[in-house]
Each structure stands twice: as C-alpha cells, then as structure tokens.
Amino acid sequence: MKFIMADEGSVYTPAGHDAEVISRSIYKGNVDIHVTTFPPGAGMEEEMHENLSHVFWVLEGSMEISAQGKVLKTLKKEDAVYIPAGELHEVRNRTKNKVQFLAVTFSEL
After folding, report:
1. pLDDT band at 10, cuts 50/70/90?
2. 31 bridge partner residues
3. Which of 7, 11, 57, 66 could join 80 in a cystine, given CB atoms 3.0 to 4.6 angstroms apart?
4. Which of 69, 79, 73, 71 is nearest to 100 (CA)?
5. pLDDT digit string (tens) for 23-61?
C-alpha cells in the first residue's frame, strides 16, 4: 500500500499541453494515473495515441472535448469520458475557472 498525500507526487507539464497546465503523477506503471489542472483558457493540442486509451473524470470545473475542430461534449464535475486508442482528441478549458480532472492512461493490448 502506498499513500500519496495532497502535497506529494511529481508535478510536470505533459508534452503538447499549454505551459500553465500542471499534472501531478499519482502512479506510473502499466497504468498512468495523474491529476491534471487547466487554468482558464488552457488545454492541450489535438493528439492521438495508437496504443493508449484514456479515461478523464472531472473533479472540479468543466472542460470541452473536441476532435478535428468539432466540439463533441462539454464535461462538468463528475462527468467522464473514455477515449479509446486511435481516436483524435483535444481537451480545453473555455471557462473562467480552473478545471481539475483525474486522468488514467492505459494500454488495451
């Protein structure tokens, strides 16, 4: 058993994300689990992972999920999205408040 307290875990900005985006790594192994915070207006470029899927669970605020320039859905607190490997996706905070979400990245192979 390993506990990760609120002030622990490495903090980084993932590649392809705006400079002010912060992720706090909770666990890295066969599954990557982190909590990500986007301040107002921040987000990530459209991307696709051939072998990795995501689950994003909104903890606070709301965020927009898009693909190929089209908004697919706006998620709010306690909403989630599953993005299978091979699907284009972009995540953006278009609100005046921060959005925080749990991100789980894993291989389905």
Report:
1. low
2. 106
3. 57
4. 79
5. 777 778 888 888 899 999 999 999 999 999 999 999 999
> Three-state SS across the chain?
CCCCCCCCCCEECCCCECCCCEEEEEEECCEEEEEEEECCCCEECCECCCCCEEEEEEEECEEEEEECCEEEEEEECCCEEEECCCCCEEEECCCCCCEEEEEEEECCC
Give the residues across from 32 on adjacent strands: 28, 105
